[in-house]
Amino acid sequence: MTDVLDDLAAEYRRLDAVLAALSPAQWSAPSGADGWTVADVVLHLAQSEEAIGSPAIGDTGSFLPSTATTVDGAMADLVAAERGMAPDALLARWRKAASATPDTLRSYPPGTRLAWVRTSLSPRTLATTRLAEHWAHAQDITVPLGIDYPDTDRLRHIAWLAHRTLPYAFSVAGRPDAAVHCDLTAPDGTRWTFGDPAAPNRITGPAADFCRVGARRLTPEQTALTAEGPDAAEALRLVRNYAA
């Protein structure tokens, strides 16, 4: 794969081009994130990007408030506390934070672990989660507004993350881990495979669908994905591209 930090920067640039072209009415329009406007989504992205540069992620704790009981609730509270910024100021704030992230993550020495949400991650895995989150929230912005946002081969990082974190998803649900092989079709028609081909569970179909299921933007039933094996359907139900 292309280096994830380079691809993260590319995803930022693509979203930047979309945001720079929005009208004031579009900034105020409802997004695909329940209860949030487009401006709220960008504020959330700015806040979470700013956390990348916070000393807190180098500690054993988390950048989330100590009083947080759920990740979604904490993020909603953070957005509510700063809601109302003008679009130009909000875009500048997100740009400043996002532009610093790739070099910040690249600066950490090998073996570094960074506290993030409910776990600790390597800098490059954290970069992958940032790519996944920006891509998912780009859907929340562009789909309701009817703006074209074609899928790219950067989805490979997101599909890898979704497959890699399946054990975590099973554990959160109180389920024993199950080996899953994914055979996915990339946007350009090539194949991406993850996991042991001999695994008893197999998920096949478009990588874009797999990533959208992991982002909870589609249900498995709304996709062309197929699940074969005793735990494959459950894996599709539980898969996620984010921590919660």
Q: Which CATH architecture of the largest domain?
A: Up-down Bundle
Principal-axes geometry comes out as: globular
CATH topology of the largest domain: Four Helix Bundle (Hemerythrin (Met), subunit A)
SS content category: alpha+beta
Strand content: 5-15%
- The overall pLDDT, averaged over residues, is 92
Radius of gyration: 18 Å
Number of strands: 6
Q: How many helical stretches?
A: 10
CATH superfamily (homologous) name of the largest domain: dinb family like domain
SSE order: HHHHHEEHHHEEEHEH
Describe the fold and architecture.
There is one protein chain. The chain has 244 residues and is α+β, with helices and mostly antiparallel strands. The protein has 2 domains: 4-145, Four Helix Bundle (Hemerythrin (Met), subunit A), CATH 1.20.120.450; 155-238, Nonspecific Lipid-transfer Protein, Chain A. The protein has 10 helices and 6 strands; from the N terminus they run αααααββαααβββαβα. A 4-stranded mixed beta sheet has the order 4-3-5-6. A two-stranded antiparallel sheet has the order 1-2. Helix 5 (87-106) runs antiparallel to helix 6 (123-145) and helix 6 packs across helix 7. It is globular. The model has no long low-confidence stretch (mean pLDDT 92).
List its traits.
Nonspecific Lipid-transfer Protein, Chain A; 50% helix; alpha+beta; 244 residues; 2 domains; 10% strand; Four Helix Bundle (Hemerythrin (Met), subunit A)
